[in-house]
Amino acid sequence: MRYTPREAFFAFRRAPLLSALSVVTIAFALYTLAVFGLVWLNIERVLDDVAQRVEVIVFLEDGTDPAESATLMSELATYPEVDSIAYVSKDDALARARGDLSEYRELYEDLEVNPLPASIEIELKPGFRRSAQVNEIAARVERFPFVEEVKYGEEWVSKLNFLQDMSLFLGLVVGGIFAAVAFVAIGATINLVLIAREDEFAIMKMVGATPGFIAQPFILEGFVKGVVGAILALVLLTATFSALEQRVLALGFYTPAQIVTGVALGGVLGAVGSILSLRRHLYGGTA
Amino acid sequence: MILFKNVSKEYPKTGYALRDVSFHLRRGEFVFVTGPSGAGKTTLVKLVTMEERPSAGTVRVSGFSSDRIKRREIPYLRRRLGVVFQDFRLLKNRTARENVAFSMEVIGTPREQIGLAVPRTLAAVGLASKADHLPAELSGGEQQRVAIARALVNEPFVLLADEPTGNLDERVSKDILRVCKDINLRGMAVLFVTHNRTLLDDYVGARVIELDRGALVSDTGAGDS
Question: Rounded to an integer, what distance in angstroms lies between the CA atom of residue A258 and that of residue A46?
């Protein structure tokens, strides 16, 4: 076996508990990140789904001059975000209500006055259906004096957006804390190995081994720990996910490419942890 | 080769370890460096390996200069030096063969080359038959031969022996010195550091650099460069 791979597993034998701690903390870091990432991903899916159905309904005051509503409609038609516009007269609204709300048919049939307002239904082009953009259009439309109200389900769109931001933030913070603990554990393992093998490193420096060469086994070891941690995180995540899926239907999971990226991220995390703690030892001092 | 030009080394706590030392070790030369303990012999060796840099003056070793060498170049300088210490510094859990091979492995020498060079070098120091012994199974003199083989295997231009006989009795010390002389006869320069002047008795006419309290007090080979 070549020097680097052979030496990389020395730490696992020398300090099995600390090595295991490194792996487990990396696993928790990635697991936390992955869980919140999954929340983010699923909110994103819901938002996409909601966005497809986002429709801005502009209710007009009773007695609005048809010429005025026509002006509004022709202005709306010039907005680049607008996909289609439909005018729903008071009569149309009543007819639709009678059809849609069949349980209340009798209620609507006896009406002497039509209580429903006329409205303009605006469908937005894909890419313009997010909360901020919809808000902006609503604000523009509301400036017309004959507009009674604009509705577009803004509240829960912005709630979902907030949840999404929170999950990203929490994932990064909690995941970051675990990653920091993982770095400390990796560093402590490396320190133990360096102390145990002081003689060897002295000889290596004396005969002209480069710091890079001395560092290689440690970096490989950190990488392996990271990958093992990532696989552990994946197992945990899959278990959590299938438990959840039995209660909540149709959740989205990571794509294979995202999973591979996550495992690689674990490896990088482990390698970086090793490099950080090695820099002090190999590049410190004069030799 | 090795050139010391007005070299001083001062440590913040203990003061001057070397003061204004100049000498030139030429290709293939054998030089004794002697003097009582505290004379600055070990500091001189550390300046050659660039483990320490001079406080004043310049050390030049095989094309590298102490005032210009970059930290990342130091490993490449060390590959041109073979160093042996009083305490052997062998890896206890590795055989003689593995100890020698280790110094080739860690500078990335191809395996086939290691397989050829290690037995040859062990034979050159008279240890071919003990290649598979651990250091604990070898005598002090044999351990030092392993250390010498390890220093030689990468074919340096100079062997730096820092008190190589300090832990050995008179007879074995002479053996080790003879091994170093043999190496020198094959063309390698040797800088042999010892406080034991009786060792020099058999080598009348050899170049001797004598240090005392950090100063170079005599150099029998100076001037004829």
Answer: 19
